[in-house]
Amino acid sequence: MSAAAPLERIAAAHAEVAPRLAGGAAWVRRRARALERLLAAGLPDRRDENWKYLDHARLASYPFESMALAATAVQIPALPPLPLAGRRLTLINGRFEPALCDAPEPGVDLTDLAALLARAPESALALLREPDEDPDDRFALLADAFAGSGALIRVQTGTAPALPLCLTHVAAGENPAAHHARLVIELGAGAQLLLVERFVGAGAAAVLGNLAAEIRLGPKASLTHLRLHEHSAAAAQIETWTVRQEAGSRYEQHLLATGGALLRSNLRLALEGEAAECRLFGLFAADAGRQVDLSTRVDHLGAATRTEQEYRGVAADRGRGSFNGRIVVHASARGADAMQASRNLLLSPLAAIDARPQLEIDTEEVRCRHGATVGSLDEHQLFYLRARGVPEAAARALLTWAFCAGLIGRLPLPALRAAAAERFAGALPDRALLGGLH
Amino acid sequence: MSDAGRPILEVRELSVRAGGRLILDRLSLAVRAGEVHAIMGPNGSGKSTLTGVLAGRPGLEVVGGSASYLGRDLLAMAPEERAREGLFLAFQYPVEIPGVNNIYLLKASLNALRRHRGLPELDAFEFLGLVREKLAAMQMDESLLNRGVNEGFSGGEKKRNEILQMSLLEPVLALLDETDSGLDIDALKVVAAGVNALRGPERAMVVVTHYQRLLDHVVPDRVHVLAEGRIVKSGGRELALELEARGYDWLRTGTAAA
Predict the structure, then answer these.
(1) Rounded to two decimals, what is the model's pTM?
(2) Residues of chain B with pLDDT under 50
């Protein structure tokens, strides 16, 4: 590990890597501007309200200076099977990997961002959002400074592919490295997509993945987005998602985080059009010293917009979790309906979870509820199970499972529920005792 | 049966504290196989603490005395061990456990007991057949099996579910904690029939109740009156009728005088 501060290491890596990235003069300027802004603003730290729970020292120990370059040949690892049949799209260290992509269904376009940068750099400029001044956007700025790889997913107006799209992010390679990727997902009016996205790692190296992604949903478009974080044990992931929704569109996300050493996820969602609706569900298991730090912000801008949000976290051993959830109902959002809940379970005295739900309402005629709980297993439930002959360890595992099952039960397809149950039970203590449950 | 009359439970001079207060004060009770004992007493007399300490409820501190179950030190056993040895507590307030299916718990507990007794586990088919038969006897809807344990059950459904579990697990010693409370007369009859079906020379029951009406249907061999943490009077079935007629006050003054 370098002793130099992350910003210095980022600047050094940029000087070395940026000249080799595609996109011509326009992108040289764009990346330089992003780097300059990042160096001036700095990475977020403890003083930033939304970043106070993150283990910044741990994050700084990751190799910001070592880029996983396109030129470096990487052994393509064997991937775990998909949770259900679908068309594949695979990014290895952020790079579009044609050998692991299927031909998309009619009405769906999959584009390699590196190829687009080389072919039409000017149109790529307009396509990729420039990050703003919000501290939550700093890592997007970092991704912008190294913009060179990623993918674009477009579902054309009125199209509803029969199969889900399975997007796999693979962290590969033997050496510690950082990689930056961009993702753009656009659904035209009335388009529908089930996107199953998973993050997997193939190695023990300390890999930092930095993903900046944006989703744009046209009028009445509907995206169901399952996100499985199954990074390898030493990996860290930072991600910045922005979602913009037009009238009558629907976005449903299920985040299931069971892997990696550190996950920081920023989700910023704008319900711009009338009656746009989002449903956000998140479930994480933080054990063995893992940290999961989730931050979400939903802006209700259009009238009669709706949010339903429920996040649950389980922390065991020395695991750390946090949830910063902010919902802002603007003056224009008459008739908005927002529900936010954060429920958290601590399984050990050394585990910790911080939950901060925040609601800001600038208009009348809205319905908003929020709440957060952090607690341990219910002693009455535990005694009840033991009084029925269930051994204590099994009773604890069962109640922990029951806590998680409430969210897994919300997944859209039985196959996904079964796969998620399998994966999630696998991250819980005493998993063997859960057998036969589903 | 040869088991009849063997000692099942022997509580000697048991004192229990909870929340900084002495709740049971040198209580003694002996129950033999084949017997049904009723424990009656006013609110706050220690009835639920007695069943709780026998089943291993946390938060109760034994400060004196002993309890033996089938010749073993009951108080040294973990709650699950007591259950596997055939002790069953029908809860006064059965807890709701969303996310754990009722049928999953029934199967898990039955198989835990069967393994402990050296019996093979039931397969899914045998198990379901057995559960359906018990459900019918308790006049319970089969849909309750696939709900979370007690989740959204009415008060009466919760109590029936307790007796359903009991009839499935066939305990050696059943402790019924105010099983009659909150039941209408029809439900009371169904629950009482479930309890009576389990009576037998090899089993014993301790029925805790505030009112006499359950004892019209589950006729006890012995009745004990609990007041201020001690058994202040014991007798036959007629004692319950006397309590019904006279209330508890005459006994309370009796203790104070003693």
Answers:
(1) 0.88
(2) 1, 255-258
Residue B2 lies in a domain: no
Is A199 an interface residue toward B (CB < 8 Å)? no
In a domain, B196, yes or no: yes
B159 in a structural domain:
yes
Average pLDDT over residues A168-178: 88
Give the Å distances, CA to CA, from B21 to A64, A135, A412, B25.
61, 55, 52, 10
**ipTM computed for the complex:** 0.95
* Direct distance between the N- and C-terminal alpha carbons of chain B, in angstroms, rounded to an integer: 41
Tokens 């900046």 belong to residue? A212
Distance CA A409, CA A310 (A): 13
Chain B residues whose CB is inside 8 A of the A381 CB are 95, 97
Strands (E), A234-380: 236-245, 250-257, 262-271, 277-286, 291-300, 306-315, 320-329, 337-346, 352-361, 367-375
The Cα–Cα gap between B159 and B140 comes to 11
In a domain, B1, yes or no: no
CATH number at residue B162: 3.40.50.300
Answer yes or no: do B89 and A387 touch at CB < 8 A.
yes
- From the candidates B91, B95, B122, B123, which should be mutated to test the interface with A, based on the most A CB atoms within 10 A? B95
For the ranges A4-13, A151-160, A296-305, B53-62, the lowest mean pLDDT is seen at: A4-13
Rg (CA), chain B: 18
Distance CA A238, CA A141 (A): 12
How many independent structural domains does chain B possess? 1
Domain extent, residue B94, equals: 7-257
Tell me whether strands B7-18 and B21-32 are parallel, antiparallel or unpaired: antiparallel
